[in-house]
Amino acid sequence: MEHKIGIVLSGGGARGIAHLGVLKALEEMGIKPSIISGTSAGAIAGVFYAGGYAINDIKKIIEEADFFNLTSILIKKQGLFAMNGFEKLYQTHFPNNQFSDLQIPLVVAATDLSKGEIVYFSSGNLAQPLMASCCIPFVFQPLYLNDSYFVDGGVLNNFPVEPLIGKCDVIIGSHVNSIKPEVGEIHMKDIIDRSFHLAMNTTVKSKINTCDVFIEPPNMSQFGLFDVKKSDEIFDYGYSYTQTIKEKILKTVIQ
Fold first, then answer.
1. pLDDT value for 188
2. C-alpha 231: how far from its chain's center?
């Protein structure tokens, strides 16, 4: 009997492209998830993968959509970009706009700013929860949904493993926000990024043991939150690192 494999994909802005490299390496090992849980960038990678899109096509969609293009964001709305602009993109690629149409079940985490709690979406309208999950504070406008205002799922849970616990035989975690403990110079554009992930990393560490396999390429902070121009490098970094732990992954997953 085949294992039911769950994979959790962290947030991380443009660093989320590394998830695609991880997924490609896993595919080459014969490993495909039965269910995916993701937040922010992980939700974006997760929804297209769950929708049956080829990994190279997903990478191209992300590159062309300006998901993480800081210059574009700042020019368009004085630092606050409206996530509604992406609704048409999702509806183009997912015409029925329903979770139920995905080939792999997907859970999307978003932060309910009004109630101060994390919300997990897995049914109904697809585009709205995806946009809510990616509303990086101070960069995007909060998204109004179900009588509440939502922001990035990473604010309260940047590694949403909880929906997978008890529902899978094997849980694989892909975390793309490893950071240097100390840095010399900090540029203005890095302040939100580093502050956000320093605050979240302690919580993520407490969840590592909930995963049977935890994939965390080292020093991901060499890539910025909005470094989509380095997509090839980020993708290859995630792919190559996953290949280096192939033996450990296979031993754990395929028993």
1. 57
2. 15
